[in-house]
Amino acid sequence: MIAMGAMFLWALIIGIITVVPFWLIFSKAGFPGVLSLLILVPIANVVVLFYLAFAEWPALRERRQPSGLQ
Q1: Which portions of the chain are predicted below pLDDT 70?
Q2: 3-class DSSP state of 3
Q3: Per-residue pLDDT tens for 21-41?
Q4: Distance CA 29, CA 68 (A)
Q5: CA distance 16 to 55
Q6: Are 38 and 50 in contact (CB under 8 A)?
Q7: Which pairs from 25-31 meet CB under 8 Å and 24+ separation?
Q8: What is the pLDDT of residue 67?
Q9: Residues of 30-48 as b/e, b for ≥16 C-beta within 10 angstroms?
């Protein structure tokens, strides 16, 4: 029983270490940080990384627009 608890704790730590950096990356790119939770889902994690790599980032789109024109 103790080994199962230790394994759960280890999985939780690895999950947090994985999700937090992606949460920051998604947020800085202008996407909702919640998308980083998909990194934990098999197959979806590959799709999310491709989306992040090839999508137009809202943060860059806002940076390119002149502030006077809206």
Answers
A1: 66-70
A2: helix
A3: 999 999 999 999 999 999 999
A4: 22
A5: 25
A6: no
A7: 25/52, 26/52, 28/59, 29/57, 29/58, 29/59, 29/60, 30/57, 30/58, 30/59, 30/60, 30/61, 30/62, 31/55, 31/57, 31/58
A8: 62
A9: ebebebbbbbeeeeeeeeb
